[in-house]
Amino acid sequence: MSILVVGSVALDSIRTPFGEVEDILGGSATHFSVAASFFNRVRLVAVVGEDFPPEHIDFLASRNIDLGGLKRVPGKTFRWKGYYEFDLNDAHTVDTQLNVFEDFDPDIPEEYRDSEYVFLANIHPALQLKVLEQMRSPRLVVCDTMNFWIESQRQALLETIARVDYLLLNDAEARQLADEPNLVAAGRKLLTMGPRRVIIKKGEHGVIMLGKGVFFSLPAYPLETVFDPTGAGDSFGGGFLGSLSRYPAMSDEEVRRSIVYGSVVASYNVESFSCDRLRDLTAEEIEDRYREFTAITCF
Amino acid sequence: MSILVVGSVALDSIRTPFGEVEDILGGSATHFSVAASFFNRVRLVAVVGEDFPPEHIDFLASRNIDLGGLKRVPGKTFRWKGYYEFDLNDAHTVDTQLNVFEDFDPDIPEEYRDSEYVFLANIHPALQLKVLEQMRSPRLVVCDTMNFWIESQRQALLETIARVDYLLLNDAEARQLADEPNLVAAGRKLLTMGPRRVIIKKGEHGVIMLGKGVFFSLPAYPLETVFDPTGAGDSFGGGFLGSLSRYPAMSDEEVRRSIVYGSVVASYNVESFSCDRLRDLTAEEIEDRYREFTAITCF
Questions:
Q1: Min CA distance, B45 vs chain A (Å)?
Q2: A233 near A168, Cβ under 8 Å?
């Protein structure tokens, strides 16, 4: 039951209404891996530069994460700088330095190609497709994306999502990709583009999942303080796919439960900068909040 | 088990992406009454002008609605003209003609003053308070409001909500009244202002309910087409209070169930202009959609 993730490992500089930090551990593959590692072993494929702090490597290695696919190459690590206003819904990018990520061309290690669960984090859709072509016969492929690719690489993105099982994106991206303002109609339209299921993340409003004859809606965990929303979507993906990888039958009920686990881990992740809250998060805390989700939604 | 509502009965002219209509039956008390009448008898207190079409009176009288408190006075009926863009979340007002509503001074008929359930629809908060002062000992008072009163009559509004059991408002209004961007924190702050419970309507994102040690979150029914959102909040209020009036114990579970019934009726109400969809809505359809709410939220 191995999970492969291909995406970014980055150094983030972030300002929120609650604080400001420089060059902290970030990146889509980072947030995914740490979140998924609570449920299953993760194989991480990404690239960092020579300046990547060894303590971050040590931290990732201390989790249930296989770093055999994390390349260290000459140059500087991918850096993102941004801030959030009080509503915390939109990330405002101040600066993006791709650095070594600019030439990232994921070569999946031979021993990773049998991975059963694949998470294509938010990278160029042509690279996502290239990853897929290297895999033997994954049981489930989940694909994330972002507005930048929807605008600039629409055709490549459509080719990629036609070949994945689950498409994961946020509400604005779903509306944009489907060219449809109603979110439910947008989700239905995205289903016609190939994926078996579409999961739409709505931030403070929770998440919806659509499939053929299937609809599931889960509210967000009611946090009074979202400290830093960076990585919420990727940690949701990690919690979701990590949980689902423990249910080989992947029944509708198991998919729903995994969406709750994804939401649980994401709700913890946004309580601190980076994935700091996940460093000391316990399995018991995860189960506690899962039960709280039941309590706040049952009727 | 009588329900009293005080609010507006109006003639609306509305444009949505799906159509345009003139002088159709509208108003907060109208939408509330028709929705609540599926569950219990409603006593309606409002005012209309001489131009109010008799067929609307006939329609309201044909429901489980007592019109003894609906005054017909010289002058024209309250008119609202507005439109919605594609996102359907914000009503844009083009014109408001208060007409006979300008001098509306609710005098509660003697035989209504023993009403057990009171819905103070969206009118001047000083008038809401005046209604309250005329009531004998209602079991439950629910108060709605809007941004206009929050901005222009804040002090009067605070006096009113200090004396009600449930405060019902939408997400933007909750943030504005609490002066707090995080919705959960806003809800908690509103609780300190007096009401035992706060219900925040989030449109396409559903509804949350907060109380002391209580939190409930229900997603919206997944409609692909919201034809006209006018009256969604009031029909939610009607379905909610109508349902709750059938559960005298008002346990937490019964309150939650009533929130689902409110959401069910509101989801039907937005499928047509005015309350047209409710004209032929059946009890069976209400139960069907209640079961669908269970199916889309359970995990």
A1: 32
A2: yes
